[in-house]
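On to my pick:
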Amino acid sequence: MEFCCKREIEGKLAHDYLTSSVKNHYGNMTSSPRRVFVSTGPVIVGAGPSGLATAACLKEKGIASVLLERSNCIASLWQLKTYDRLHLHLPKQFCELPIVPFPADFPTYPTKQQFIEYLEDYARRFDIKPEFGQTVESAEFDENLGMWCVTSVGEDGTTTEYVCRWLVAATGENAEPVVPRFEGMEKFMATGEVKHTSHYKTGGDFAGKRVLVVGCGNSGMEVCLDLCNFGAQPSLVVRDAVHVLPREMLGTSTFGLSMLLLKWLPIRLVDRFLLVVSRFILGDTTKLGLNRPRLGPLQLKNLSGKTPVLDVGTLAKIKTGDIKVCSGIRRLKRHEVEFDNGKTERFDAIILATGYKSNVPSWLKENKMFSKKDGFPIQDFPGGWRGECGLYAVGFTKRGIFGASIDAKRIAQDIWEDDQKHRYVINTTLRN
């Protein structure tokens, strides 16, 4: 049956492609050879947790997939672009990939290395072998073929065109670092260091230095704590209102407790409960320069995707003055930073904890499923996982690995059902 499916695809290609690879799918002649690979299963772009989860769920249903990854390893964000002290911010039961739970001896909040170990074991268990070093430059649905044409460039410069019936965008919410530009940045960089958290590893590299951390999300807060622990003098830029919650309350994880309460209470009441308990445990954060948003933490998360900060000890350092809270940046100078409140201070380095963004609009050529503005599915969760013509999205729910796992299962089931229908049609045609 698989041979028949592949022969059908290759038959279509024969009318539109020169398999000697001198013509692209626009019909234009190319100066360099192009390989054409016909896949009877889906092509998945991105070998992070989302891509691995989708490939595993498909394999459980007997469907092979092609997994393309621009880096040289799985979960490259975790392996190459995270700091050493990082732990999962949520309990492990909310960060498991489908089918395989975390080892029982792992702590409630696994370390970065433990999570990477879990992902590598996961890939081995399902015999997932990504095509590494493949940077996808474009993916477009060919109306004539009724197929997706995915063009990637390997590390050696070889261009490969993957032709498939289903395409899964699994590059996720954190594909590219967000690096803001400040007036005078070049002047500061002439005397000091500026780096994004994707290049930050340990506070030991900044011992004894005055460091300004820009961004008060979970990463910014934790980097400040890490800098303190290594003898640096960190300051934290807090420009927007932020919800800070204790990581645990009433003897259990705050996230787990929230999920439990939402089964019985409306989100507005759960938010009120979280804020009351947080104030009792953490105190009034506004006195520390951390104003809370008007909407509650869960409502804000649902509407904007902005995740509340789960405190792991940073607030205590702010209270003692080991971490200083600053207003927004107006401009940078040599050795100095001028803030919106008019104050100027000297710093040796700036760490940009300014997050990441989707890169889907840079390679996916379609206008109905993904927003060109932010690279997220236009339709909100739980409906944003499926588009038209066999296009799918996983890892864009703004609900972390938990949301990605839900979508991976749905995608595998949908592709399996579509494949069964397709095979039925071919069988019926062959019999007739």
